[in-house]
Write a structure and sequence with these properties.
The complex is a heterodimer of chains A (312) and B (246).
Chain A lengths: L1 E5 L2 E2 L2 E2 L1 H11 L3 E7 L6 H4 L2 E7 L7 H15 L3 E5 L2 H14 L2 E6 L10 E6 L4 E7 L4 E5 L14 E4 L9 E8 L11 E5 L10 H10 L2 E4 L1 H5 L20 E5 L5 H7 L4 E6 L12 E4 L2 H18 L1
Parallel strand pairs in A: 1-4, 1-6, 4-5, 5-11, 6-10, 7-10, 13-14, 13-15, 15-16, 16-17
Antiparallel strand pairs in A: 2-3, 8-9
Chain B lengths: L1 E5 L2 E3 L7 E2 L4 E2 L6 E3 L1 H18 L2 E8 L4 H10 L3 E6 L5 H15 L3 E5 L10 H9 L3 E11 L2 E8 L2 E8 L2 E5 L11 H9 L2 E5 L7 E7 L8 E2 L5 H11 L4
Parallel strand pairs in B: 1-6, 1-8, 6-7, 7-13, 8-12, 9-12
Antiparallel strand pairs in B: 2-5, 3-4, 9-10, 10-11
Helix pairs in contact in B: 2-5, 3-4
Classes of the chains: A alpha/beta (312), B alpha/beta (246).
The structure holds flavin-adenine dinucleotide and adenosine monophosphate.
Chain lengths: 312, 246
């Protein structure tokens, strides 16, 4: 099969989610990666891309021009499958491409498709509380891969890189400004997350959360009420109505584990729960539980981690 | 200003998720339906605020059966002027988007609002598809929307922060948290909603590009391992050697 993978770049670097998508695509067929701007595309071959098409005329992935780019690449290569990462940019472009190509779209894929007989993709639904097996009936197919659900594999190949100059029309939207959340790994991409809830009593107590996150190299998150009362910024709110995350490690302190909170975090590989109440529902979803006061446990955990890191 | 807001129903966030008919259908037994939170709290309320400030109308649109009417009435109770229901079982996002795009094409709206995603299917697909069918720009994951004349300014979520976007009407957006505050309908709104127009229109033919053939539940978690609060070295050891996450 011939596969197109849309590859995002930021400041010239390929995003982690795009490496996942390229590696995923290479298990389905021959991958042509399609990307844009002033990007260092050499590493794409190592993750399984056979070819890379770069459009230097496009500097950021606005939805209309990026759609035209992908559709033109599909026409040129005759690809039957198009892969996106289901991240912020992917969400803007994949559905457009699917509509433009008359292609069925499996959104939120977490596994490789089954292709013996029907083409069936397992996707995340009900905010991670269940999976749906989606059958794509169309000749052309679009798959959006959920970030952090497929481990990219370096196979050490190299890709033939060429420039394309398709006419992309004009951009409908203009980006005027970028407001940064600050340094560090953005939540949806984070592999390690330290999160806290109302049990922390007030914003002045978040130092111990940030200290632990700093020791781990983790990103911080919070429950919804904490963001709603303004103790923490809104982009940290995880759950059904916030950001959905799938880190390797999720540490939750002073969070009760309401069903709407769990919905956004239950894709985490390992969950550690710290709560004074041994009956807190979160313990049912936890791998490791500490019944105790976050004000004591968090600093102790931080010390233990520092010791561990120093010994490494 | 003529605004169109896409409204879908979703199971209440506390619903038990289970399946029937050999795991091919969502088990609706005992499930309460609500208006999908992103559609209600953010998209609809911001649309109403804009019309309150600038004049105009807010129409809601839903692809669904008569079973959707209570959620549509809820949107009318919150303040939408009128509602359209395209009478069909929503087959997949492409099908729904095509229906809505056909209606929007014929009726010319300044902005089509969708929610960030439905909380049951989490597809986040509809807005982009509608925009492509209408050949209009699409601002996904919008957290803020202001409008002056025909120029709209939006903040939208991107990796590591938010972008400030400028776009001319007409366009399509998906609404994420931050765009507005939830509104609770009052008695007057609820009474008024009963007599507001809800127009039912037939669906157009669209072929089935995708279908859900079965559902699965995630594997059961093994029981939680408890660690003494004084023994964080043990937790670190387990995270390193057993879970292998640090
Ligand atoms: C439609 C809808 C959508 C929602 N979406 C979300 C969502 O996306 N994300 C989300 O998080 N919530 C969401 N909620 C809210 C959710 O239902 C809960 O209210 C919320 O998650 C509770 O936050 P919390 O655990 O921080 O606070 P609480 O429920 O108040 O829990 C605080 C916890 O801290 C513990 N505690 C207290 N002191 C300490 C201490 N010293 N040390 C350790 N533990 C301590 C307590 O035992 C308790 O378990 C939603 C609700 C609705 C209705
Ligand atoms: N059947 C439907 N009728 C009208 N709007 C819908 C329907 N399904 C989804 N939507 C809209 O599309 C958005 C995204 O849905 P989805 O692509 O399913 O995640 C929702 O937040 C709604 O605004």
């Amino acid at each position: 099969m011939s596969v197109i993978v849309f590859v995002e770049s930021k400041n010239g670097n390929v995003s982690k989610a795009s490496f996942e998508a390229v590696s995923y695509g290479s298990k389905i067929g021959d991958v042509t990666a399609v990307t844009y701007g002033d990007v260092d595309a050499t590493a794409l071959g190592e993750f399984g891309a056979k070819k890379v098409l770069v459009h230097k005329g496009l500097s950021s992935a606005n939805d209309q021009q990026a759609t035209k780019l992908v559709v033109a690449a599909v026409e040129e290569t005759g690809a039957d499958t198009v892969i996106f990462s289901q991240d912020q940019i992917g969400k803007a472009i994949a559905p457009r491409v699917s509509a433009a190509l008359n292609a069925g779209h499996a959104s939120g894929a977490i596994e490789l498709p089954k292709t013996d007989g029907d083409f069936i993709v397992k996707t995340n639904v009900f905010s991670g509380k269940a999976f749906a097996n989606v059958k794509l009936n169309s000749d052309k197919k679009v798959i959006s891969l959920l970030p952090n659900s497929f481990s990219p594999e370096k196979i050490g190949g190299s890709a033939e890189i060429s420039e394309v100059s398709y006419d992309l029309g004009s951009a409908g939207i203009t980006v005027k400004d970028f407001k940064s959340e600050g340094e560090g790994v953005p939540l949806p991409e984070a592999e390690l997350v330290v999160s806290a809830g109302r049990g922390l009593k007030g914003p002045e107590n978040w130092g111990m959360v940030e200290d632990l996150a700093a020791t781990l190299g983790a990103t911080t998150a919070c429950s919804r009420p904490v963001a709603d009362i303004g103790w923490r910024p809104h982009h940290e709110h995880v759950g059904q109505t916030g950001v959905a995350i799938r880190p390797n490690l999720y540490i939750a302190a002073g969070i009760s584990g309401a069903i709407q909170h769990l919905a956004g975090v239950n894709g985490s590989k390992t969950i550690v729960v710290i709560n004074t109440d041994s009956e807190a529902p979160f313990f049912k979803a936890a791998d490791y539980g500490i019944v105790g006061d976050a004000f004591e446990v968090l600093p102790k955990l931080n010390e233990a981690l520092k010791k561990f890191k120093a010994a490494q | 200003m003529k605004l169109l807001v896409c409204i879908s129903k979703a199971p209440d966030t506390t619903s038990k998720i289970a399946f029937t008919d050999g795991d091919t259908k969502f088990d609706e037994n005992g499930v309460q339906y609500i208006v999908n939170p992103y559609d209600e709290w953010y998209a609809l309320v911001r649309a109403l605020e804009l019309v309150e400030a600038n004049g105009g109308t807010v129409t809601t649109i839903t692809v669904g059966t008569a079973a959707d009417d209570p959620t549509i009435r809820k949107a009318l109770a919150i303040g939408a002027n009128d509602a359209v229901r395209i009478d069909a079982e929503p087959k997949d996002a492409f099908f729904v988007a095509k229906q809505i795009a056909e209606y929007a094409k014929a009726n010319e709206f300044d902005i089509v609002f969708t929610g960030k995603e439905t909380i049951n299917y989490n597809g986040a697909q509809l807005g982009g598809m509608i925009a492509e069918f209408l050949n209009q720009p699409y601002v996904s994951l919008a957290e803020k929307l202001d409008i002056a004349g025909n120029v709209a300014t939006l903040d939208r979520m991107v990796a590591g922060g938010s972008e400030v976007i400028e776009v001319n009407t007409p366009f399509v957006l998906s609404a994420a948290k931050g765009m507005a505050e939830q509104r609770i309908p009052n008695m007057r709104g609820i009474m008024a909603a009963r007599t507001k127009p809800l127009t039912v229109v037939p669906a157009t033919e669209v072929s089935n590009l995708s279908e859900i053939v079965s559902y699965e539940m995630p594997a059961e978690k093994s029981a939680c391992k408890y660690i003494e609060a004084d023994n964080m070295d043990e937790l670190v050891e387990l995270l390193h050697n057993e879970a292998k996450v640090i």
